[in-house]
Write a structure and sequence with these properties.
Layout (H helix, E strand, L loop, with lengths): L6 E3 L2 E3 L4 E5 L6 E6 L3 H18 L4 H17 L1 H12 L3 H18 L7 E5 L3 E9 L2 E5 L5 H15 L2 E5 L6 H10 L8 E3 L6 H6 L6 E5 L2 H11 L5 E5 L4 E5 L5 H13 L9 E7 L3 H13 L2 E2 L7 E3 L5 H16 L3 E4 L15 E4 L6 H4 L6 E7 L2 H9 L3 E2 L1 E5 L3 H8 L6 E4 L14 E2 L2 E2 L4 H6 L2 E9 L6
Helix pairs in contact: 2-4, 2-5, 3-4, 3-6, 4-5, 9-10
The protein binds nicotinamide-adenine-dinucleotide (NAD).
The site of nicotinamide-adenine-dinucleotide has 28 residues, from helix 7 and helix 8.
Length: about 475
């Protein structure tokens, strides 16, 4: 019998009697079912969150930290069960699933240490003026399918720590691990502080426009982000949007191809390329282009694409059929246009599982769809450049501005270029790194607001200024 995973509403695990199937992308088999919620269940969760908010907002940071500590522990104590579940619904190899689970536990614990102290502007015999931070209220969190657990905790933690309560909606493609975590943390906080409900995409707009939700925190595509901004405008809900990216990686001529090939490979192919901050356009200086592109292709040749639960798999399937078809369409377009492939390009849509062979393109033009659009799959276009000015202009020629990387033997030179990139994060000689203490914020159409660190936490608060005239007490 198929395992059924329940929702968390008001501290209880509940279902609706109607179920959605969840499919393993490597086998296309149904691996579980989750409740199909609609407006009624959403109302119930919002009412629970509203009631809980009245008391949760009065708790101290230490009380909130204690609840978050229980969540971090529940995740790490059950890591093996959770990472196996995650691989089965998301597709990523066990090792990467384990990193996501342990990384999520670390992020909960690390961010729980943040504080929001009052800022004192003035405090003398005449007057005191200070800014305190008050929680925004009930939050709706909406997350995608590429990092379902990381993204879920990234919504829950700052909301709880700021004194807000939350209704979280996982992607209908990857809700299972999150619901298992819901079960494990059901009594970590008072009933109604954290609610997790599942359903089709159609409950997303109901959350965005719900009159008793005060803020939306969303991670997903730029297209959906725009709809959310529109939906939230009716009652001026606060919003944080973490959206798509088309990140450029720039390799300067002094980089040793043997030292960077493997890292560049993984900067594009980790999680089968389904990472908002994956390197989706790789610019290599013409002096080392041939040697480095060959070294990347050679490395790719020994990476196994397959079921993430099998030992030795480095790259798993695409998470869902819709995205699989989109990636194949971009590859077909590149083939039709006659672009050169160093590896990949062939695929067998009739086979079982949403597998795409590792695909590396040899110097396609800048306006190729596979370069200009976010591929979100195991695709790596390598492009030649000859001057710094030219590559900076090409890297910045995008509506997106999420992250980027510069690789060079000369870190100072790389930083000079990094500072000219129009993105929220730039790595020098490293990749895909986020910290719990620094803001992650997309520029341009990659986002609105920030996550992580104090800036991320502030997004769940309003500033309130208290001004006391100490010499005018009407006594
Ligand atoms: P998506 O926008 O299709 O869906 C994301 C979530 O939004 C899902 O839970 C979905 O059910 C919900 N949703 C769909 N339509 C909605 C609507 N009209 N109103 C409200 N909610 C709605 O994105 P996806 O395909 O799940 O994820 C892939 C995208 O996410 C990529 O573009 C990727 O770059 C982006 N992403 C960004 C980050 C980041 O932090 N910047 C991280 C991961 C993924």
């Amino acid at each position: 019998m198929t395992t059924q995973y329940k929702n968390l509403i008001n501290g209880k695990m509940v279902d609706t009697g109607e179920w959605l199937d969840v499919v393993n992308p490597a086998t296309e088999e149904v691996i579980g079912q989750v409740p199909a919620c609609g407006a009624a269940e959403l109302d119930e969760a919002v009412a629970a969150a509203r009631t809980a908010f009245n008391s949760w907002k009065k708790t101290s940071f230490d009380e909130r930290r204690e609840a978050l500590g229980k969540i971090a522990k529940a995740i790490s104590d059950n890591a093996e069960e959770l990472y196996r579940l995650l691989t089965s619904e998301q597709g990523k190899p066990h090792e990467q699933a384990k990193q996501e689970i342990m990384g999520a536990s670390y992020m909960v614990a690390a961010q729980a240490q943040l504080d929001l102290d009052d800022e004192i502007f003035q405090d003398d015999e005449k007057e005191s003026i200070r800014t305190r931070r008050v929680p925004v209220g009930v939050v709706g969190g909406i997350v995608p399918w590429n990092f379902p657990v990381s993204m879920a905790v990234q919504k829950i933690v700052p909301a709880m720590l700021a004194g807000c309560t939350i209704i979280l909606k996982p992607s209908p493609f990857t809700p299972i691990t999150t619901l298992r975590i819901a079960e494990l943390i059901a009594d970590a906080a008072p009933p109604g502080v954290v609610n997790i409900i599942t359903g089709e995409d159609s409950i997303g707009p109901l959350i965005t426009s719900h009159p008793d939700i005060d803020k939306i925190t969303f991670t997903g595509s730029t297209a959906t982000g725009k709809k959310i901004m529109e939906g939230a405008s009716a009652d001026l809900k606060r919003i944080t949007l973490e959206l798509g990216g088309n990140d450029a990686s720039i390799v300067l001529p002094d980089a040793d191809p043997k030292k960077v090939a493997e890292q560049l490979f993984w900067s594009s192919f980790m999680n089968a390329g389904q990472i908002c901050i994956a390197a989706k356009r790789v610019y290599i200086h013409e002096d080392i282009y041939d040697e480095l592109s060959q070294a990347i292709a050679d490395y790719a040749a020994q990476v196994k694409v397959g079921d993430g639960s099998e030992q030795g798999t480095g790259v798993g399937p695409i998470q869902n059929k819709k995205q699989y078809e989109r990636v194949l369409e971009l590859i077909e377009d590149a083939k039709d246009k006659g672009y050169k492939f160093l590896t990949g390009g062939e695929s067998d849509p009739s086979g079982t599982g949403y597998f795409v062979p590792l695909t590396i393109l040899d110097n396609p033009p800048e306006d190729a769809r596979i370069v200009a659009e976010e591929q979100f799959g195991p695709v790596m276009p390598l492009m030649k450049f000859s001057s710094e000015e030219e590559v900076i202009e090409r890297a910045n020629n995008s509506d997106y501005g999420l992250a980027g990387a510069v690789w060079s033997a000369d870190a100072d030179k790389a930083v000079e270029i990094a500072e000219k990139l129009e993105t929220g994060t730039v790595w020098v000689n490293q990749f895909l790194k986020l910290t719990p203490h620094t803001p992650f914020a997309g520029h341009k159409q990659s986002g609105f607001g920030a996550e992580y660190g104090k800036e991320g936490l502030l997004e769940f608060t309003y500033p309130q200024v208290i001004m006391v005239n100490k010499q005018n007490a009407p006594a």
